[in-house]
Amino acid sequence: MVNEKYYEKCFFEVLDDIEDYRQFLTLVGGWLVYVYFRFLWNFSDIKPIHTTDIDFGVNESNSNKKSKTIFEKLSSMDYKERHILP
User: Fold this and answer.
1) Residue 35: CB partners within 8 Å, gap ≥ 6?
2) Strand 55-58 with 25-28, pairing
3) Number of domains into which the chain is organized
4) What is the pTM assigned to this prediction?
5) What is the distance between the alpha carbons of residues 67 and 6, in angstroms, rounded to a whole number?
């Protein structure tokens, strides 16, 4: 069973951690649907399917203005790629 509140908390923590990069990013994928349902349309009783990973589109023309890549930033904060097996 997915712990909706835990994953939502993690989602917003990641957004806080990449605050300096958000202007270059567009949320796509399953979390986009979740954000629309929960926060724009206020359909809290409907649970859209989403994954735990967060997908972003990148505005490439502006993405080179930072000294670190998003990967470098998150890696320095001890984020790691992991795969959860059933």
Assistant:
1) 27
2) antiparallel
3) 1
4) 0.77
5) 31
